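for the recovery benchmark. tokens below, seq after
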């Protein structure tokens, strides 16, 4: 029999400063016994969708009364922090880039059908919801159509248009906007201890503070800057589309396309703000189409995809005459 891996400790989550208003709404609904049986939280990556979902799940499983956040002291919180609360389930792809499958959903439904072992709420986090394939989505529908008492399904989605319309219609959908720039900048400066770098990185991250923090703490900012350098080399004609594609085709195309779209936005609202280039909008549509292909799981040749995109990118400026 294979030896089980030890459970990892889990820190208690608190909502971020820009989420306080939404958090208060959640707590008010909880106090009034008005929480839905299924909730879908949507928003961009890097703004804290996962954070507030985890904070809500943990608060529901906390047994302290009249506490705004999970207390950290009760048996429920101790089980959460130990990583083995029996009434908390997480459903996600078995591997990055893969789908959530029907058997995973069936296993989740079987767990949720049982009585809560701690006598309170049962909570399931499903993330990202858009990775459920058709069969998995259909299997989830039964639970959404026949809700059980004191059971909450929290679906997280970063691309809600890719989630089945039937699933969306059976959830209370809460969209999380980008945080206020000043508030996000203050938070990032406090956490990182570098106000100037925080402001610069937040701009590069498209106003997404957790993504900016990830850039500041790891090497992904250097990777992004290297990619944008490749994009600019193609724009200037210093690098051929084929060679640029060769540099990109083995990397995460979804991430690169996200970086490309943010780069394009900064270009249109910054350097080219006073001399707009209509071809940029056409190219932006091509990036979105390419991303939908990548996300669909289609068998796309990444080298050919990037060659075509970089050829089109070069033509954006050649047609403009500079």
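predicted aa per position
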């Amino acid at each position: 029999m294979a030896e089980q891996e030890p459970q990892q400790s889990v820190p208690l989550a608190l909502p971020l400063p820009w989420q306080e208003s939404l958090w208060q709404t959640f707590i008010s609904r909880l106090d009034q016994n008005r929480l839905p049986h299924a909730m879908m939280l949507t928003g961009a990556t890097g703004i804290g969708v996962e954070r507030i979902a985890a904070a809500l799940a943990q608060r529901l499983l906390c047994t302290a009364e009249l506490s705004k956040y999970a207390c950290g002291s009760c048996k429920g919180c101790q089980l959460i922090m130990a990583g083995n609360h029996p009434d908390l389930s997480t459903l996600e792809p078995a591997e990055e880039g893969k789908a959530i499958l029907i058997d995973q959903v069936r296993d989740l439904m079987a767990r949720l059908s049982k009585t809560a072992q701690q006598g309170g709420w049962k909570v399931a986090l499903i993330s990202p919801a858009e990775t459920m394939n058709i069969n998995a989505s259909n299997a989830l529908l039964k639970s959404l159509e026949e809700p059980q008492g004191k059971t909450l399904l929290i679906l997280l989605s970063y691309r809600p248009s890719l989630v089945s319309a039937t699933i969306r219609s059976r959830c209370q959908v809460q969209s999380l906007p980008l945080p206020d720039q000043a508030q996000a900048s203050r938070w990032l400066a406090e956490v990182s201890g570098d106000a100037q770098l925080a402001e610069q990185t937040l701009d590069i991250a498209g106003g997404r503070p957790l993504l900016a923090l990830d850039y500041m703490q790891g090497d992904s900012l250097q990777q992004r800057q290297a990619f944008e350098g490749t994009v600019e080399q193609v724009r200037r004609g210093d690098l051929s589309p084929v060679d640029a594609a060769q540099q990109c085709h083995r990397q995460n195309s979804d991430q690169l396309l996200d970086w490309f779209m943010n780069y394009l936005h900064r270009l249109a609202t910054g350097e080219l703000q006073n001399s707009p280039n209509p071809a940029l909008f056409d190219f932006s549509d091509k990036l979105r189409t390419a991303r939908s292909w990548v996300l669909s799981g289609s068998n796309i040749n990444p080298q050919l995809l990037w060659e075509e995109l970089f050829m089109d990118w070069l033509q954006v400026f050649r047609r403009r005459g500079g």
